[in-house]
Amino acid sequence: MFYRPEDGHGLPHNPFNAIVTPRPIGWISTRSPDGVNNLAPYSFFNAVAYTPPQVMFASTGAKQDQDGGKDSVANIEATGVFCVNVVAHAHRDAMNATSAVLPKHSDEFEHAGLTPIECETIPCARVQGAPAALECKLTKIVNLPGEANRVVFGEVTGVHLHDDHLRDGKFDVTTFNPLARMGYRDYSVVTDVFSLARPDD
Asked: What is the dihedral of CA 120, 83, 91, 169, to 10 degrees?
């Protein structure tokens, strides 16, 4: 099968997200200028640089009560900061609850029954009990083709690691099983890992 996206795929469901998988989930917490916490999952998310450490997430689509896209992006534009919370398998239902489209002045922490904890380096909340969290300052927002398609880049200014997930000096993801986004409404979970030595090691 071959198709041009501009012509459509002819399938019952769009296969694009199912092709680019698995994708890590950035559970992005922000705060509005008037102090309301916001929390939303983004599966177009990844780390992009080591030194200094940097991450990105992409927000797609418009929201009726928010100009230019989603609440997360609007808050980041206004405050210049955000936090990336890692999603453990145990938080799957809470993460899903925060994906609901709520009015822009809603607090998704409260909606999902989560406890916010203040970050150390930025004026923002993070998720209590998350395996890890990356405090970030905004470096750039890039507008992409399409309605409200925007990529947010940030430099990591603080890193939280839950002590329960440190094993022999390494951050062991098998101790909390991170969630990953697949296509459609599907998710996966990391339970097994293996190592490969690079040819030049």
From this structure: -60
Own/partner long-range contacts of 109-115 (Cβ < 8 Å, ≥24 apart): 109/29, 109/37, 109/39, 110/37, 112/39, 114/39
Task: List Cβ neighbours of 1 (8 Å cut-off, separation of 6 or more).
Answer: none
CATH number reported for the structural domain that contains residue 143 in this entry: 2.30.110.10
Q: Please indicate, yes or no, if residue 119 is contained in any of the structural domains.
A: yes
Give, as one character, the DSSP assignment of residue 58.
Answer: E
**pLDDT digit string, tens, across residues 52-108:** 999 999 999 887 788 777 999 999 999 999 999 999 999 999 999 999 999 988 999
Q: Which amino acid, 25?
A: I
Q: Report the 10 Å Cβ neighbour count for 17.
A: 17
Tell me the pLDDT tens digit for each residue of 6-57. Answer: 999 999 999 998 999 999 999 999 999 999 999 999 999 999 999 999 999 9
In the numeric block, the tokens 């599907």 are attached to 186
Q: What are the helix (H) ranges across 80-131?
A: 92-97, 108-112
Q: From its phi and psi, is residue 10 left (phi > 0), alpha (psi between -120 and 50) or beta?
A: left
Q: Which helix (H) or strand (E) holds 75?
A: helix 71-79
The total domain count for the chain is: 1
> What is the extent of the structural domain holding 108?
24-189
Tell me if 75 is assigned to some domain: yes
